[in-house]
Amino acid sequence: MCGIAGLIHRGSSADIGSQMTSMLQALKHRGPDSTGFALYGDKATSDHVMRFKVAEQEDLATGFDIHATIVDRKNTVDERLKELGVTIKNEEQVTEYAHRYTFGFDGDLKRVIDFVEDIEGVEILSVGHALELIKDLGDATVVSEQYKLGGFAGTHAIGHTRMATESDVDIRSAHPYWAYPFNDVSVVHNGQLTNYWTNRRGLERRGHRFMSDCDSELIAVYIAHRIDQGDDLHTAMSRSVDELDGVFTYLVATADSLGMAKDVMAAKPMVLYESDDLIALASEEVAIRSIFPNEIDTFDPYEGEVRVWQS
Amino acid sequence: MAELNQEHESHKLGMHTEQLAGRTQQVFFSPSAEENFTYPDGIAVDFNKETEFDAGPMEIRDVNLKLRELMQEGYGTITIRNPGAKHSLGVGILNRLNLTFDGSLGYFGCGLADGPNIRITGRVGWSCAENMMAGTIVVEKNAGSTFGAALRGGDLVCKGDVGSRTGIDQKGGTIIVGGRAGAFTGFMMQRGRIIILGDAGKNLGDSMYDGTIFVGGKIEDLGVDAVEGEMTETEEKWLETKLALYGMKAPNGVKNLTKIVAGKQLWNYDNLEPSEKKLVL
Predict the structure, then answer these.
(1) B-chain residues within 8 Å CB-CB of A297?
(2) Which of A45, B138, B276, B277 has the fewest beta carbons closer than 10 A?
(3) Would you say A219 and A187 are in contact if contact means Cβ atoms under 8 Å apart?
(4) How far apart are CA B187 and CA B184, in angstroms?
(5) Gap between the Cα atoms of A41 and A13, Å rounded
(6) ∠ Cα B11 B16 B19 (to 5°)
(7) If contacts are CB pairs under 8 Å, which of residues 265-284 in chain A contact chain B?
């Protein structure tokens, strides 16, 4: 079933870590398998923030030398970054397998990403000036506490609670998906795409990479491809409504905007609250109400509708 | 099917005492329909006995149990504060009751209603009043998709906009929408009436095989089998009366509503008498 949520503050920032945690926790019944956050910080600089993992959570229970392997993989990441001239300015180990690096680099970022992801077991979750993508197994409160997301100040965010239907219960199949290799573009999705493999083959032939077998990843790659072809976000999303087949509602976030799209059947839910200062949207109204103590007016976007808001 | 003996079949199914004019969409054609609203197993409540409670800190199940307890105690007018868009509130009320939700409901609000008069001051999520049998439900703001799915009787009113597939599989009763309705409204509709005072989305009345849809605004397009019909004087009077009940008006008068009906002949269905149709629905 899955639950998705998004919010964007216009002209201000707030504790989006706590807000998105509340919204996603209210949607826990839609998918308890994993939870993911794409948070857009308000202190974007020319430095890159990279979130990556060197193992799956479930790997920790397998084999005798997994802990040593994890250390080796992390060291290899550091070596390869250094080899390509990346200067790491700050690094945090959030869990045994998840890391957050800040680095300066003005070369070919895609080459860096590909070189790092060439290491077995390593996956870059996001690279951006503002975006930080966090996802792990468990509900929103568990993941939020694990990654210390409370107090994360920013302008906008999207999030996802996953009920695994199309692929495994693991971090690589959890949402959000980063629109590799584009800085700061992320996607969450609720639904099923029925022309997944047709589109995937086409995008792979164009050089795009897929890290999972989850149909939702296709949307992120598709949007990345369309942006690469010169579309703006609204145009890319409008095109997706025609070209992606199935039932879906999805959200896309970029460094300064938030977008939503619904399929032409309006088969998947989305409730929207819009004011001058804040837009909040979610699969269910109960998620929006988790951050509003007062009565608010909400509505459902219609079939085939695409909306984009700026922060 | 042509040889079907209506009386025999209805007796066999234990439906021989049921009147078509009762507890269905035709109730407003009959001033004496009141007598058809009998609830032999319903809880006897006193409308003058009023109370309210706060659902904010309560779990869904506890809210519904509390509501049932209050009805057992004879309370006939109940206000529930802070429903907070929780799901499945007010479901399965099978007796008369004046109920107000002061706020918004989530999914499946007030489903299976059979008799109560319910007012929701906020918005409702998907599938409000699913399988409603009788009574009235009035939503003051907007509604999500599948509003009134499989409605069988009573009046279901949304004063704002509604989502897609409104009245899907509708088998009776009346749905009134003050604003816009989404795609596939009246999808596979079988009986009853839908009144949309605003615009209607695409595929209106797709695959409907009975019932009537009235639209005040623009229709994006009609679904398979849906065609424009001719308004009758009786229908105009009925529309005026029905809308007035809820303080609503057609934007350009009821004469200018567009009437949509099923255009396809379904021989195994259309050759039946009205009461025979009831048996197959």
Answers:
(1) 122-123, 141-142
(2) A45
(3) yes
(4) 5
(5) 8
(6) 160
(7) 265-267, 269, 271, 284
Q: Are A104 and A58 in contact (CB under 8 A)?
A: no
Looking at the complex, report in whole angstroms how far the Cα of residue B123 sits from the nearest Cα belonging to chain A: 7
Who among B125, B142, B201 is closest to A303 (CB)?
Answer: B201
* Cis bond before residue A269 (omega within 30° of 0): no
> Which of the residues A22, A296, A303, A305 would you substitute to probe the B interface, choosing the one with the greatest number of B C-beta atoms within 10 Å?
A303
* Full-model pTM: 0.85
- Domain containing A122: what range? 45-128
Nearest chain A CA: its distance from B194 CA (Å): 19
What is the CB neighbour count within 10 angstroms for residue B62?
A: 11
The closest CB to that of B123, out of A266, A267, A298, belongs to A298
Minimal CA–CA distance to B75: which of B67, B64, B83?
B67
pLDDT one-digit tens code per residue, B160-179:
999 999 999 999 999 999 99
Cα A4 to chain centroid, rounded: 11
Other CB atoms within a 10 A radius of the CB of residue A172 amount to 17
Active site (catalytic) residues of A: 2
Band the pLDDT of B129: cuts 50, 70, 90.
very high
- pLDDT averaged over every residue in chain A: 92
Q: What is the CATH number of the domain that holds A27?
A: 3.60.20.10
CA–CA min distance B89, chain A (Å)? 13
Chain A, nearest residue to B182 by Cα: A302
What is the number of structural domains in chain A? Answer: 2
> Counting runs of H as helices and runs of E as strands, what totals does chain B give?
5, 11
Predicted-assembly ipTM surpassing the 0.95 threshold: no
Residue A194 parent element (H or E): none
Span A21-43, pLDDT tens digits: 999 999 999 988 999 999 999 87
Closest CA to A70 of A58, A82, A83: A58
Q: Which chain A residue shows the shortest CA-CA distance from B143?
A: A299
Say if CB A279 and CB A297 are below 8 A apart.
Answer: no
Query: Are A303 and B161 within 8 A, CB to CB?
Result: no
**Pick from A94, A110, A128: which residue ends a domain?**
A128
Buried b (16+ CB within 10 A) or exposed e, A85-115: ebeeeeeeeeebbbbbbebebeeebeebbeb
Structure token digits, residue B151: 């409605």
Does 2.40.50 match the CATH number of domain B20-280? no
- Interface residues of chain B, partner chain A, Cβ below 8 Å: 84-87, 103-104, 106-107, 122-123, 125-126, 141-142, 144-145, 160-161, 163-165, 180, 182-184, 201-202
Q: Kindly state the average pLDDT of the residues A122-140.
A: 94
